[in-house]
């Protein structure tokens, strides 16, 4: 909201400059966004919070400034002389159903000469961000800016019939509004209608057909009180925000309608030659007239942490237009312009704090009481990030939203996606079912940026629609530019080992987004807890990185054992030296490391502590279809030094079993 | 024995001191200390001695052995230092470096903020990203149709009455529903707002919200805790300012600003001329919110606060554009 400071000075005679004024308003909850200095004086821009409809006007802000300085608030002149018969001789108002609009006033003004407004008025409108149109429309806007009460002027000759009807919109009905746009109406909208035809969208904007034109000679000036909720609903539904709807949706002063009409009549008589008819046509069934709120001094001081005395509290409130009765037990009468916002004791306490200034409230640390139920537990998965960091992976945070079409073409099950009803773009119309697409996009972006080190990981939620429910689970995923399956496997397995997590690996043929044969699945406690591999070309093509070699994997953290990583137990190691034996064997190419490893482990006896593959070799010195594998076996006992004879015995068994079970021959 | 020992002692000491080459030194080492060296031969001859004298001579011979070992070692170091060519090595060559992949600034700040509150005795609670209207709005006193809901442009889930939480405040409701006061915890996590991406908007970002409730927690405590937080989080002298604001779930509501560190309050482009920079929103928990959660507002009172983590990271590290946070440029990530 833009506010020319010289207009403000018309109602409060303060001497502070614009910058000081800006500080004061900000400290009272009217946040000043900017101060512009123009030749005609300063213009401040205030960002109003939704609860302060009372300050959506020059007079409202002037009231705050007057309260701050303890100065009187002056009133604008609103005198005029009335002529001719009253409006009721020709017009009537019908509000149907009556609750739809609690107060509706019409004032008839004859002999209008529509022309151009005087410069001072046009200047103030322009400085406030409103384009001057003609002397009638300008006055309604001027009075709205000044008092906060939106007004609307109908050309009386252009409205059919004699009854102005306020009612809900009807299905099938539509209206062309002032800006020329056409809107279909619904029963939730409030319509001003004459002779069955909508002439204005109540609380939002007027209809084009009944607008004031240069030929207009007689107008009906409308001042209404609509409920804020119904106006903000219409605003949202039609996507139509106006200066009027801005004020109605924040709540206008139900006690200020007649004052605004008088002010407008005064100005119209002065600048447009209008002759106001006596009185106003009224529909007024506004319920309670006064709001009283009770609050005790001890509540005030307890909530604020202050030691305010009763007379101080009374002064603070009365400066804002509240009336009070009592001292320690206060009854406070809320002024009509604050009745939407202030209903409870705590609302009064806020006004006291605001009026006092938040800087006057002490700053004190509470006595700390640690809540054990919610005490932070150590993160069981920190090591996963440490391992990846040490391997050179950077941690990313990608957006948890993704494009459903893209996900489906990349191979994700369309039924498992959770879709957004009102996305901002098709690239972000679903919640991510996996962290991998985000990581691939990150790699793609970095490739385009010429980055060399392409290793990224992310830890965060993924979202799956299981049909019955929307599940959110925590994943950890990594991806890198690599065509080496073992490099990827090293990432996943190193994490699991660092977490002290027991697991099994499976190598299924069906490999999802990964390349067949370059894929493994992690099983923990009988459940799939992760996958890894080199990404398949179809997936990479769908992700926009065709022809690249990328690999990666993920772990479903919720499926891992949380205790294994965070709770370690000491175990002693053997003080006796290990004995090492190397063995090189030649076996069929189809035999896997895993088969040989298992054979060695089971044949080696209880003192065989570790088996490590040190070399795999195929080549010209070997028969085709054969490979040579070299293992290093470590024997050790916790109780004594093993003798070499003993170790020879164990080793012999291993050799024997390799020959028998794996068809291995020893390589010299 | 006596004579022989003395001879070896004097001769070996002189020769070792006077040698000028590493090769000769090695020859001397073999001559005196080798397996068949002079001192070992002498040890073998001890069998002929009187049993009483054996340990005495044993000690003497071994002491000389150790002495010669030491002098030969230090002499070797002296000699090789003189003769080895040092000119070929360039110690200014760059070693192969481990390039630290950096700490993600959002995660870093999220953890730092959490650590500060944890050290002040706050616990931590989490909640789901996919929320109900009730937890996200109604229980937090955002009435249906109230313009306050416009402050939060919301993503809704298709074919369901769920939405993506617009703040982490629903966690407060979930905790308060489940257990009785007092409370003292923060709720970190992702939030979602229906915004198109630009320099100051992201459709998903992170928040840390906090809640402290007890019999006598006041606005003065709100100021105390948040002042303390600001002092610890921002480097240097931090000046805070609290000003009235509006949130449906707090009353009174406040926003905390810190004095702009660039212009010290005078107004500059970093603070859009305001002299202060907005840090977080806070306020005393509205009695309606307590009532929705089954907490008696006549017995309990307290404050809540919330801050955007990306915003804090921008302020702390001088990052000018929110988009950096989700692009994940390696050169960005490696900086923190």
Characterise this structure.
The complex is a heterodimer of chains A (668) and B (336). Chain A has 668 residues and is α+β, with helices and mostly antiparallel strands. In chain A, helix 6 crosses helix 7 (243-250) and helix 18 (593-603) packs across helix 19. Chain A is elongated, with a radius of gyration of 40 Å. Chain B is α+β, with helices and mostly antiparallel strands and 336 residues long. In chain B, 40% of the residues lie in helices and 19% in strands. Chain B has 12 helices and 9 strands. Chain B has helices spanning 2-18, 22-33, 38-45, 54-83, 105-119, 133-136, 170-178, 219-233, 287-292, 309-317, 324-327, 330-333, and strands at residues 123-124, 130-132, 162-164, 183-192, 204-214, 240-247, 250-259, 276-285, 301-308. In chain B, strand 6 (240-247) and strand 7 form a beta hairpin. In chain B, helix 1 (2-18) packs parallel to helix 4. Chain B is elongated and about 115 Å long.
Quick description:
Chain A is α+β, with helices and mostly antiparallel strands and 668 residues long.
Q: Report the helical percentage of chain A.
A: 25-40%
Q: Ends of chain B: how far apart?
A: 74 Å
CATH architecture of the largest domain in chain A: 3-Layer(bba) Sandwich
For the largest beta-sheet of chain B, the strand count, sense and barrel status come to:
7 strands, mixed
What's the structural domain tally of chain A?
Answer: 5
CATH superfamily of the largest domain in chain B: Bira Bifunctional Protein, Domain 2
Low-confidence stretches of chain A: none
Termini separation of chain A comes to 90 Å
Described by the principal axes of the CA atoms, the overall outline of chain B is elongated
Largest sheet of chain A: 7 strands, mixed
**CATH top level label of the largest domain in chain A:** Alpha Beta
CATH class of the largest domain in chain B: Alpha Beta
Query: Biggest interface: chains and residue counts?
Result: A-B, 85 and 90 residues
């Amino acid at each position: 909201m833009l506010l020319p400071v010289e207009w403000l000075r018309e109602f409060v005679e303060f001497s502070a400059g614009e910058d000081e004024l800006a500080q004061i308003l900000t400290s009272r909850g009217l946040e000043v966004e900017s101060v512009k200095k123009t030749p005609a004086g300063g213009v401040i821009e205030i960002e109003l919070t939704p609860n302060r409809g009372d300050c959506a006007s020059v007079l409202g802000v002037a009231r705050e400034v007057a309260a701050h300085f303890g100065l009187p608030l002056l009133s604008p002149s609103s005198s005029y002389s009335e002529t001719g018969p009253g409006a009721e001789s020709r017009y009537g108002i019908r509000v149907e159903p009556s609750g739809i609009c609690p107060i509706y006033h019409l004032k008839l003004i004859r002999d209008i000469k529509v022309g151009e407004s005087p410069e001072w008025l046009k200047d103030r409108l322009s400085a406030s961000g409103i384009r001057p149109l003609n002397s009638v429309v300008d006055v309604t806007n001027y009075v709205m800016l000044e008092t906060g009460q939106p007004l609307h002027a109908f050309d009386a000759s252009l409205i059919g019939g004699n009854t102005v009807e306020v009612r809900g919109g009807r299905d099938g009905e539509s209206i062309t509004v002032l800006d020329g746009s056409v809107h279909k109406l619904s029963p939730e909208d409030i319509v001003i209608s004459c002779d069955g035809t909508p002439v204005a969208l109540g609380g939002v904007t007027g209809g084009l057909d009944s607008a004031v034109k240069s030929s207009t000679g007689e107008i009906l000036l409308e001042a209404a009180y609509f409920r804020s909720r119904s106006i903000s609903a219409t605003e949202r539904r039609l996507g139509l925000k106006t200066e009027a709807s801005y004020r109605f949706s924040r709540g206008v002063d139900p006690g200020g309608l007649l004052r605004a009409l008088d002010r407008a009549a005064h100005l119209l008589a002065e600048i447009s030659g209008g002759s106001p008819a006596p009185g106003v046509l009224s529909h007024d069934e506004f319920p309670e007239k006064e709001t009283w709120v009770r609050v005790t001094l001890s509540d005030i001081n307890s909530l604020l942490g202050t030691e305010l005395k009763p007379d101080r509290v009374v002064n603070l409130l009365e400066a804002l237009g509240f009336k009070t009765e009592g001292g320690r037990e206060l009854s406070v009468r809320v002024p009509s312009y604050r009745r939407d916002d202030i209903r409870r004791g705590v609302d009064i306490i806020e006004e006291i704090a605001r009026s006092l200034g938040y800087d006057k409230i002490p700053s004190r640390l509470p006595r700390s009481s640690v809540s054990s139920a919610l005490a932070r537990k150590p993160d069981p998965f920190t090591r996963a990030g440490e391992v990846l960091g040490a391997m050179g992976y950077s941690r990313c945070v990608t957006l948890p939203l993704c494009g459903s079409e893209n996900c489906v073409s990349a191979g994700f099950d369309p039924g498992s996606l959770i879709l957004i009803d009102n996305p901002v773009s098709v690239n972000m119309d679903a919640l991510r079912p996996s962290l991998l697409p985000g990581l691939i996009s990150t790699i793609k972006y970095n490739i385009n940026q010429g980055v060399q080190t392409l290793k990224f990981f992310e830890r965060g939620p993924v979202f799956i629609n299981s049909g019955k429910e929307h599940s959110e689970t925590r994943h950890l995923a990594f991806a890198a530019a690599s065509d080496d399956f073992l490099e990827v496997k090293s990432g996943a397995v190193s994490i699991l080992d660092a977490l002290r997590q027991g697991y099994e690996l499976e190598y299924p043929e069906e490999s999802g987004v990964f390349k067949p044969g370059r894929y493994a699945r992690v099983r923990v406690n009988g459940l799939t807890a992760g996958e890894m591999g080199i990404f398949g070309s179809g997936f990479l093509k769908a992700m926009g990185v065709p022809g690249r070699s990328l690999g990666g994997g993920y772990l479903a953290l919720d499926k891992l054992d949380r205790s294994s990583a965070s709770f370690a137990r000491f175990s002693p190691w053997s003080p006796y030296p290990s004995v090492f034996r190397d063995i090189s064997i030649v076996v069929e190419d189809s035999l896997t490391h895993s088969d040989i490893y298992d054979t060695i482990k089971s044949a080696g006896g209880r003192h065989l502590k570790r088996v490590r593959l040190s070399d795999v070799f195929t080549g010209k010195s070997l028969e085709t279809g054969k490979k040579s594998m070299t293992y290093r076996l470590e024997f050790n006992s916790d109780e004594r030094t093993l003798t070499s004879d003993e170790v020879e015995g164990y080793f012999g068994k291993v050799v024997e079993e390799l020959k028998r079970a794996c068809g291995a021959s020893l390589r010299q | 024995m006596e004579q022989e020992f003395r001879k070896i002692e004097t001769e070996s000491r002189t020769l070792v001191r006077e040698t000028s080459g590493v090769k000769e030194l090695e020859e001397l080492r073999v001559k005196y200390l080798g397996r068949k060296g002079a001192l070992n031969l002498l040890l073998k001859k001890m069998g002929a001695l009187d049993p009483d004298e054996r340990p005495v001579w044993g000690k003497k011979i071994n002491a000389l052995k150790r002495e010669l070992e030491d002098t030969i070692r230090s002499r070797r170091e002296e000699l090789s230092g003189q003769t080895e060519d040092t000119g070929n090595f360039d110690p200014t060559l760059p070693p192969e470096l481990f390039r630290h992949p950096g700490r993600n600034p959002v995660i870093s700040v999220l953890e730092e903020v959490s650590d500060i509150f944890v050290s002040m005795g706050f616990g931590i609670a989490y909640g789901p990203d996919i929320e109900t209207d009730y937890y996200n709005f109604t229980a937090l006193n955002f009435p249906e149709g109230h313009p306050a809901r416009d402050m939060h442009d919301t993503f809704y889930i298709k074919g369901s009455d769920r939405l993506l939480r617009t703040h982490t405040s629903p966690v407060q409701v979930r905790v308060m529903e489940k257990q009785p006061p007092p409370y003292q915890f923060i709720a970190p996590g992702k939030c979602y707002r229906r915004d198109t991406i630009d320099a100051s908007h992201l459709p998903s970002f992170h928040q840390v919200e906090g809640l402290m409730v007890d019999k006598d927690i006041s606005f003065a405590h709100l100021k105390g805790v948040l002042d303390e937080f600001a002092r610890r989080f921002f480097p240097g002298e931090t000046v805070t300012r609290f000003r009235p604001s509006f949130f449906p779930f707090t009353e009174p509501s406040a926003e905390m600003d810190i004095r702009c560190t660039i212009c010290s309050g005078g107004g500059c482009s970093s603070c859009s001329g305001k002299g202060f920079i907005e840090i977080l929103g806070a306020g005393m928990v509205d009695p309606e919110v307590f009532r929705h959660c089954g907490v008696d507002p006549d017995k309990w009172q307290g404050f809540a606060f919330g801050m955007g983590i990306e915003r804090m990271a921008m302020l702390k590290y001088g990052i000018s554009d929110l988009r950096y946070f989700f692009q994940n440029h390696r050169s960005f990530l490696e900086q923190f």
